[in-house]
Amino acid sequence: MTNTTVLVLGLLFAALWIIQAWFATRQTKAFMAEVRILKTCGVTAVGSHSKRGLRAFVAMAASDDDEVLRATRFDGVSLFARPERYTDVEGHHLTEIATWDGSRVRLAAADSATHLLNRHTDAAATDPAATDT
What we know:
By secondary structure, the chain is an alpha+beta fold. The protein is about 50% helix and about 20% strand. The chain has a 4-stranded antiparallel beta sheet.
């Protein structure tokens, strides 16, 4: 290989890497914008699951009685994947979702539900009034 070929390949690689980083940043910003919307609905958690190297994320907002008010999923194999509303979990109780099995998205929803259910345990552990009996 000549020096010119190496330079051109290096510049091409750098340009593709910058484009990939730009798309990844856009994806992250879009998902976090959805999470901010969920935070206005109720207590929020994000769960994830990876299967065969592919990762899915589910963010959900729950009411005080552990019912899912709204959810967003982010699952895709390309840089063009966008977050979308996940209506399959809305209206369900967190204890039901926490036992789900199946696809990456369902397992990510179960992880998110588990995080939300654990908030009760975490709050009791840090609340001094809970230990005063």
